[in-house]
Amino acid sequence: MNNLFDISGKVALVTGGSRGIGEMIAGGFLANGVKVYISSRKAEVCNTTATRLAQQFGGECIALPANLADVAGCQKLADEIAAREPQLDILINNAGVSWGAPIDEFPESGWDKVMDTNVKGVFFLTQKLLPLLRQSGTAEDPARVVNVGSIDGIKNPVFETFSYGPSKAALHHLTRGLALHLTGQQIIVNAIAPGPFPTWMLSTGVGGGGDTDIDWSLVGKNNPRGRVGTAEDIAGLAIFLCSRAGAYTVGEVIACDGGAAYAT
Fold first, then answer.
1. Among this protein's residues, is 37 annotated catalytic?
2. Residue 219's closest CA among 235, 203, 201?
3. Is 96 inside any structural domain?
4. Is residue 125 part of a domain?
5. Which range marks the domain in which residue 232 is found?
6. Distances from the Cα of 43 to the Cαs of 16, 18, 190, 203, 224, in angstroms?
7. What is the tens place of the pLDDT at every residue in 220-233?
8. Number of domains in the chain
9. Measured between alpha carbons, how far is residue 165 from residues 125, 158, 160, 255 in Å?
């Protein structure tokens, strides 16, 4: 009982780990003794974040830039991990994009980009990493896959992001399908559905232009908890799911939103 939340010594890959929720989870993992790989599309930003996280939290954080919107990019990242590690204990599928436009003007390119990254990329990266996840998982300590969905996949979003909510709803259901087929192979799959957090993506939606150094209290005042989420909130839930404490939680979509999804 004393080590229920211990994840030290594990190896994790956090996609979309150069900023936002992915960066928060990566930082929480590093602070708790995990060797962390982070990926994002922009190599310079990924490298800078990896260096900063290692300095801030200690441990080893390695940048592996990747575009996960197509199968070739997923295969490339899986190959790079396999060249460095004999097994992978934790996969956090966090990389995601959104697209906003009025309904009459919403483009096919925006629809496809969101679906390719948020749904297809998650499936095929997980598929390509299955050999490493199978090497890690045991009956006592299964490998973990955590997909980062959204409360916009549970409730209707207020923004004109017509492909984003459906993509996250699809990801939630994909989580249940992956759990069905992989649990018996000692790979546990769950999903987190975040609500408002101080991220670049949300900043673009609330008028911050992508700047995360804004007055988030204006966003948080409408949340039942009276605030937006913190790094501790999202990292704590990820640590639970990837530790002994979460070893009997399978195929779930857990909201981490201060109550926002069920307050409307």
1. no
2. 203
3. yes
4. yes
5. 11-262
6. 12, 9, 28, 22, 38
7. 888 999 999 999 99
8. 1
9. 21, 10, 10, 14
